[in-house]
Amino acid sequence: MADQDQVTTLNTLTATLIDSVTGYEDAASNADGSRFTEIFRQRATERNQAVEELRSEVRRLGGNPEDDGSFLGKTHQRFLDLKAAVTGRDDQAIINEVERGEDYLKEKFEAALNSDALTAESRSVVERVYQSVRSGHDQISQLKHGMEASA
To answer: How far is CA 5 from CA 8, 37, 113, 114, in A?
Structure first.
């Protein structure tokens, strides 16, 4: 398997994580004063660390690490901005959008881990980052379901 296949897979995951960082930063700024603001900031910081782990692995493989989010992420972000301008943002709406992003991110990592695109060493890095992704996904999912139960 060519290192280029791994670099492409790792850069795709990196771009998706960058989108996640942007999403969490946006959620934190729109949930200003909310009980969730600090959670969003912590997750953004954690995701930035995960981005750096993947970039380091790309460099180890001799590739050029991704430094920008995905086109789809940018498109999704513009849609969220438009939606926010029209409907306003409350905690429930923000959590719903964050969870949607978490579902997408988790699926991307699971697809990469289920493919044959990674060698053992790169797979180990992706699995380590995936643990953080899964933790974030589960936390946001619990918040969403907790809010729905108390509504």
So the answer is: 5, 37, 13, 14
Domains located in the chain, CATH noted:
3-150 (1.20.1260.10)
pLDDT in tens, 76-92: 565 455 455 445 667 78
Q: Percent of the chain, pLDDT > 90?
A: 52
φ, ψ for residue 32, nearest 5 deg: -50, 125
CA distances from 41 to 45, 65, 85, 91, 136 (A): 6, 24, 22, 15, 12
Locate tokens 């949930």: which residue? 31
* Cα distance between residue 126 and residue 130, in whole Å: 6
Residue 73's pLDDT band (boundaries 50, 70, 90)? Answer: low
d(CA 114, CA 145): 28
What are the helix (H) ranges across the chain?
A: 3-30, 37-60, 71-87, 91-114, 120-150
Eight-state DSSP code of residue 35? T
* Average pLDDT of the segment spanning 133-138: 94
pTM of the model: 0.85
